[in-house]
Amino acid sequence: MKTLVTGSVLEKIGTANEVLEKIPMVTKNSNGEIQVFGKGTPIIYINNRKVMDKSELEHLSSENIQSVEVINHPGAGYDATVGAVIRIKTKNRDQGLGFSFASQNKYDHYFSENQRAEINYQKKGLNIFGMLSAGTGQRRSTIYGDQTNFADTVWNLKSTSKSYHRLSDLQGKVGFGYDVSPHHSFGAYYQYSADKDKEYDHFISDVFSNGTFYDSWNSSGTTQEKKRPGHDANIYYNGTFGDFSMNLNLDYVYSKDNQNQIQRELSQNYTDRSVITHNTSQSRLGAVKAELSYRLSPSGTVSMGEEYTNTHRKNLFDNIEGVFSDNNNKMQEKNSALFLQYSQKWNKIQLNAGMRYEHVSTVYTLNGVRQDDQSRKYDNLFPDLSVSFPIGKAEFSVGYSKKVQRPGYSQLDGNVYYLNRFHYLSGNPMLRPTYIDAVTANVSYSWLFFTASFSHDKDIIVYSSNYDQQDPKIAFVTFENASHLNRLNCYASLSPTVGWWHPTWNVGMNQQWFKYNYCQQIKSFNKPILFFQWYNAFNLPDNYQLRIDGNYQGSGNNQNMKLDDLWNIDASASTSFFNNRLSIRFAVHDIFNMYKFKPQMYNHNLLILQQNVTDTRYITLTLHYNLNISGKKYKGTGAGNEEKNRL
User: Fold this and answer.
1) FRET label pair with 540: which of 78, 308, 516, 619, CA 20 to 30 Å apart?
2) CA-CA distance, 234 to 187, in Å (whole number)?
3) What is the pTM of this model?
4) Using a CB cutoff of 8 Å and minimum separation of 24, what contacts does 377-380 make?
């Protein structure tokens, strides 16, 4: 589904992030992450270049965007873990030197800012670009928890956790693209990043045993995390030889993450405790993707290709007091893929078919010893089939695909993370991938769009819990594979135009059928989640635009969780000066401060009730100055893109 931004009410909305929020099928979850309805987290491209840093969307002005395409049925040419794709295309600009500066300033309880400068030089087929971005900020949050652990004794923990973060980030990027001729082009880029997060937390809790008061804690601590250096590089080549065309991408990613945690607990009835941990993670990825296409006819193509990814991840964990065992684990994963795609159009009927074969080999070592149970091999075929056709003035499409969702490396991490003396967190190196069979149907007519999909998820990854056999009051929260989950998603979008008023109504439903073991019984989690979005744009004279936008999500089940209602209302005003070179936007988010995330988690012997309170009501002032920026498009598409997300 393609949305034209140029000339629409979205052109003046602010940033690429705010454009995406208003695109049909695209939503934001409670963590602020972009989602495609029913398909999960998408991979995002800007001019065929994979977006690795989501903050880049905050600094791409909506005035520089030409169109946004949402693909909710990606073909075999994409990694089998990709459930959806968003492609952003920017406008072409004139030859010569261009410059852009964006300043985003945010105030909730604290002031945060991010400044980004870009420079671009375009001379015929040569495009040279550079970017520098820096930001600082502060963030606070409060979590009210009620945790019940049904072990040998019913342990109940009532707690209030307050955290305060000081954050900073720095990014730089340089690159070039060169069109040798209309048929051949190549280019490269290099990006460096460094991030710091210093967290101060204060934890107050009361513990009860079978309803009788047991102990009270007052704990405080600091966590310092430094992610540096981060290196990301890409080289690409695109070429056309008669009816043949090919593209080649080489990628390299390296990152290092150091985390030091100090936690001090003061107990009312028992001994005090200090826990000091240090964790270092290093990740390295190399990937190559090559694709060759042949035009069979003016309306038919066949393409084949390969993609190879090699990932190394190393974790070093130590605990001075010996509360946890020191850990030195390494994981090496090799993913080799071959894919074949066929596309043909007969009159008004479009057929797309593909097949992808993936061979995944994983070697897991713990303290220098190979772990055979966690070292695995997978060989899978992932078919893909879709057909599109018109009926009258309406466009229909239906398709089937098989996908896989591999556990993230943090989910596979065997290290134990300390929250308090009753609550530990850990990954699970024994996790298996989730395999998804999905059928998707779309229909569009004028300003009406509807989509529905049904999926069967085998070996779904869910939050789980257990307790320490030697000390049953300690709850371990981790992950495990549940048998299966069935899901039906329906979504409708209406976007009429009434003079200078441009409303959009989006209505959706997420219905799952899932059963899970809780307190030695099988509990059903089948309540659907409904949501409604109402966006209103008012185009006024002299380049002014006003917006009032509302979002509502009803209560219901997601995996083994129950979620409460969520709603918020935003408002904004924007305008531009100097022939649209300078744009200013002022926005108020969550005006009534009602967006409160309240999950309830049911995990075997553990029940967790939570209320997460963050500063969701805030104001932003965004300034964007644009002078002949963008130039030619960077045409690299990247390799190993989904593996980068897992890292």
Assistant:
1) 619
2) 8
3) 0.84
4) 378/433, 380/80, 380/404, 380/435
